[in-house]
Amino acid sequence: MQAMMMNRPLLISSILDFAAEQHPNAEIVSVRTEGDLHRQTYRQTAARVAQLAHGLEAHGVKLGDRVATLAWNGYRHFELYYAISGMGAVCHTINPRLSAEQLIYIVNHAEDKLIFVDTTFVPILQAVKEHLPKDTRYVIMTERAHMPANTLDALCYEELLDGKPETFDWPEFDENTASGLCYTSGTTGNPKGALYSHRSTVLHALMVCLVMGQTLAEGKKVLPVVPLFHVNAWGLPYTAPLIGMSMVMPGGALDGPSVFKLMDSEGVFSAWGVPTVWQGLLVEVKAQGRLPKEFAQVVVGGSAAPRAMIETFEKMGVGVNHAWGMTEMSPIGTHGVMPRWVMEKPFDQMINYKSKQGRRAFGVDLKIVDDNGKLVPHDGKSMGELYVRGNTIVSGYFENEEASKKAVDAEGWFGTGDIATITSEGFLSLQDRSKDLIKSGGEWISSIDLENLAVAHPAIASAAAIAMPHPKWDERPVLVAVLAPGAEKPTLYEMHAHMSEQFAKWQLPDDIIWVDALPLTATGKISKLTLRQQMSDYKLPDLR
User: Fold this and answer.
1) Distance, CA of 231 to CA of 81 (rounded, Å)
2) Catalytic residue among 79, 284, 328, 385
3) Catalytic residue among 405, 444, 489, 514
4) Which residues are CB-neighbours of 337 under 8 A, at least 6 positions away?
5) Residue range 238-266, pLDDT digits in tens
6) Superfamily of segment(s) 356-433
7) CATH number for the domain formed by residue range(s) 13-353
């Protein structure tokens, strides 16, 4: 028997309509490339989004067309999110940190009709223009007075809006219509496109509002340090308007002092970003001797947060939400909101739980399997590859049949490439990427655990553990580290003493190599691929 309920499509345009009506005075505060601080309400934003949609329509954008962005976090980028998808086109966010080769590939693969670009990134497009589709048009995201000299024959963003109506009759279409396109960083092979739908995006927003309630609150301010050009800033452009939170957009100034100053002046309650950003902020917090005003919640993701970082924030009174996800998952899959029974435990035990990757969000299913595809028990000890399933998870990759076939198993679960354990209470703990695990003498060593304990040493600012070939043991771990400012380098044996309480002797690194900086991927994670390439001629010391 079928139910007798209305069936209305879940469309992204409805989110901004709701925010403009229910939270009209909540703001988007943006550090602009023009050098000033800009403010506008959700109601004002909705009017500008309508004008932008009329401008896109006037330039021939239609249902299914891909329209790209190459921009920092700011109000214009936010407007593009809603205008492009709202009219039925696909918002393709491009990561400016990609190599020229990768950028050329994804623009051609996506067949972008228009590319919107912040003034900062105009030189990137000028350098590769001859390799991009000849009919692609460019729009620089500024007003006429700040238009830079360029060879793109570019349009001016604000002139696209000038004189256009402040309302737009948003079309209704199937909720499974594509809305957004985000490519993986492509550490191996060409980047692969995750093609989101209106349905998946709205469901993801509702899911995040449900499970991240401690970090989202009406009338408060949230700082998305995680970029809008990377997997939809973890969904914040959709969840913040639904909740009624003001968004504080940092633009390109993501160093510790700049982030501290912005958070302090705006009274940011919650901030979302990768561990490297929060390391910089903590340095500035120490220099200032205080937290930014109103700062109470931090969401950490993108890579595993060091236990020492979580402890530091928690001791300062900032609640840490250690989340996990992937581009292919929209991206949030697990969250770090702790149940009461965990929060009532002694501090060290509570931090043990917060150091894990949290519990699954509603609508996301998790399983771990061994090398033969057999289910591994959720006992917190048994390891296997993590697979995920849900309405906000890709079933394949955009225009990539070969990668799509490899992406899911026979039952339709997506393989993450992560090696994990899950406890009986549902806590996920990522042991490593399958390609980053270190296998020594037939036994596995987690590079993540080694790194987290290494950076707990006061002399180490950041570290990466990688496997080096060994004639007897197959592989041995080596620690590549950056010295903390003003610190003296600890010896290898001093590091062994620091790490020996949590690791057996055979698990400890055979060497420590000091570098000025660790290479990063386009998404701000440590690039172990690059490290392995840089150390191709490295020879392990003889520790016999």
Assistant:
1) 12
2) 328
3) 444
4) 211, 212, 213, 214, 321, 358
5) 999 999 999 999 999 999 999 999 999 99
6) Luciferase; Domain 3 (2.30.38.10)
7) 3.40.50.12780
